[in-house]
Backbone:
């Protein structure tokens, strides 16, 4: 069992303790403050950023919905065998009574794109692997952004990659300029003493 699988299992178990996060009929489900307090508690227990945990939970929930859809359609592997049950399907069964399986009213083209996404191998559907470095929250953030981006059509993936790279290059240049200014200031001070 990998660390990331254990981490996801812990996240699922923590969310299960807070029905307000997944039960749309819960009296406080629409109260953002209540839900945020729950996420803060989960964040403290797991030692991760709330926003990253929320995104990961959304990915898990979407993956469950996708697995249920495959099961309902009777999707089979290339070898003709029924698809395996998604690894977290049993663990997330507490969510099932609160999920709505949306009926598709899409065009044939949109359906085929969704079907193509659903047929990706399990390896491609793997979620982020948390690292053990000091930059865990940054790693988790970019890994979750990556997973969300992978779900988009290639056209949008390319737009996102370009925009992220543009921002990164601009900020690096800004940082380099600031570092140069600081170095110049230090040099000037040393020259005047």
Residues:
């Amino acid at each position: 069992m990998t660390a990331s699988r254990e981490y996801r299992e812990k996240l699922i178990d923590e969310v299960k303790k807070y029905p307000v996060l997944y039960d749309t009929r819960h009296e406080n489900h629409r109260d953002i403050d209540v839900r945020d307090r729950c996420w803060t508690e989960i964040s403290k227990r797991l030692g991760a950023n709330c926003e990253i945990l929320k995104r990961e939970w959304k990915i898990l929930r979407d993956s469950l919905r996708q697995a249920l859809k495959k099961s309902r359609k009777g999707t089979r592997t290339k070898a003709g065998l029924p698809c395996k049950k998604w690894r977290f399907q049993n663990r997330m069964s507490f969510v099932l009574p609160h999920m709505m399986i949306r009926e598709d009213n899409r065009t044939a083209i949109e359906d085929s794109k969704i079907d193509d996404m659903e047929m990706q191998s399990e390896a491609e559907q793997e979620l982020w692997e948390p690292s053990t470095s000091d930059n865990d929250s940054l790693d988790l953030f970019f890994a979750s952004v990556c997973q969300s981006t992978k779900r988009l059509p290639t056209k949008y993936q390319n737009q996102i990659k370009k925009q992220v790279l543009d921002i990164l290059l601009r900020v690096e240049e800004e940082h380099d300029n600031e570092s140069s200014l600081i170095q110049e200031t230090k040099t000037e001070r040393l020259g005047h003493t």
